[in-house]
Structures are given as C-alpha cells and as structure tokens.
Amino acid sequence: MFLRLDRRGRPVLAEDLAQLAADLAQRGVALHRFEDGGHQVVVAPSRLVQATAAGVAGSPRIFSASAVVAGQFVTVQVVNNLFEPNLVTINRGGTVLFQWLSGSRDHNLIPIAPGTIPNAPVVRDGPSSVEQIFPVAGTYGFFCSVHATATSGSMRGQVIVQ
User: Fold this and answer.
1) How many helices (H) and strands (E) does the chain have?
2) Statement: the pTM of the whole predicted model exceeds 0.85
3) What does the pLDDT look like over 87-118, one tens digit per residue?
C-alpha cells in the first residue's frame, strides 16, 4: 500500500505503485522512491510524510521529503571538455544544477550574453556544484572559457526556459 494525495490534498491509499506513478506523471510530478529501514517509501511532491511499518521499532516515523517536479530541476555534468547534456529544457522558475564531477579540471561557466546567467566565472575543479535558477523564459547560452569561446569549441551549452 502506498500513500498518495487526492486532488483536494487528502491522503488516499493506493495499492498499485504503477498506477500511482502514472497518475502523478499526468500531473507533471516525478515520483521519488527510497528505502527506509527496508520499507519502501514513495514521495511526491514536498510534504510532511508519515510512514508506518507494522512491528518495526520506532514506527510510525515522521520525516520531511521532497520530490522533483518535472521540468523544474535538471542536472548538467561538467566533465573534461564537455557539458553533459549540453542542451536542457526547463520550465520558468526551474533550477539547473551544474555539477563538476570528481576528476573534472579547470572549468567555469560564462554566459554567452554578457551580464546574464548562468555565471560562475571562477575556474574550478571537481567535485563542486553551482545551482542556477532561471526565472525568465528564453534561451541561455553558456561556455567554459578555458576550453571554448562563445562561438566555437566543445564546451558550450544551452538552457531553454519555457
């Protein structure tokens, strides 16, 4: 059994995880699952959650958790000589996490249009990360000034905000 919220925000039990995932996907909500002491917990979207497992010490357990709403959060990995993926699309107000992986050396983020975003001009090594919120619809180009320019090179990318 899984707990979900109905259209009015009231908790309802759902017996079928696949159906729960499909219902949430229709509403544009990504489903998050994780294990807590061997019991599967499903969360979507951010809410205070209470999970109960019969016979488990300390049950019920209350915790907060969050889920990612589709189109609101994307990760771009900064690896040697490329951004992966180099083109992402998010909704207005969404966030892109630029994540320098371990072993990634000498990279930064420079906006193609000066004075815009994303902008992390300090050259850095991984592991590291920068989060950038994109509040306005548009196309935002960026590049690594060590390995590319605004018009050429493999370390260029775009964020399309709808």
Assistant:
1) 1, 15
2) no
3) 999 999 888 999 998 888 999 999 998 778 99
